[in-house]
Design brief:
The chain has 153 residues and is α/β, with parallel strands linked by helices. Helices cover 30% and strands 24% of the residues. It contains five helices and seven strands; from the N terminus they run αβαβαβββαββα.
Length: 153
């Protein structure tokens, strides 16, 4: 990896593919530089973990319900038989305002199933402003590929 990474090739591949799978060295640093370069190019960025994502479209774009963890307390009849449901704002809610391009950086993407990866690729096709970078694990050198190639494999 070069000492100074311009990020131009990464940004062009991201704009072309819509969603990229990223493999970065485990010592870190390269992905942070790429994210800084994207922000400097006018992208609004959000970093989140892929763990617990559930239905990606509902979690990212719609008002959805989340059940709090059961902590062993007995219910006193406040909730339904399935428990209380808290309404949560969409993860990308504030980023969708305006017309700037959006990049969602997902950490720990190796936990995503093939169906979740394909729904993320379909989401970037439906929303032309949205770009996804999914960190799929470590590698000796920084490399990326279209996420669609992992869906097909």
């Amino acid at each position: 990896m070069p000492l100074l990474l311009s990020g131009r090739g990464f940004r062009q591949d991201l704009e072309r593919a819509g969603a990229l799978a990223l493999y970065a060295p485990l010592e870190g640093g390269a992905e942070t530089r790429l994210l800084r370069r994207l922000r400097a190019a006018g992208y609004r960025a959000q970093i989140t973990s892929a763990r617990g994502l559930g239905d990606p479209e509902a979690f990212l774009l719609q008002l959805h319900g989340v059940r709090p963890p059961h902590l062993g307390h007995q219910s006193v009849g406040r909730g339904a038989a399935v428990g209380e449901v808290h309404r949560v704002m969409p993860q990308l809610g504030s980023l969708l305002e305006g017309d700037q391009p959006i990049v969602l950086w997902l950490l720990e993407g190796q936990v995503l199933s093939a169906a979740e990866r394909s729904s993320l690729v379909a989401l970037t096709r439906r929303m032309p402003r949205l770009r996804l970078v999914v960190e799929m694990g470590g590698a000796r050198e920084l490399r990326w590929m279209p996420l669609e190639q992992l869906v097909a494999a």
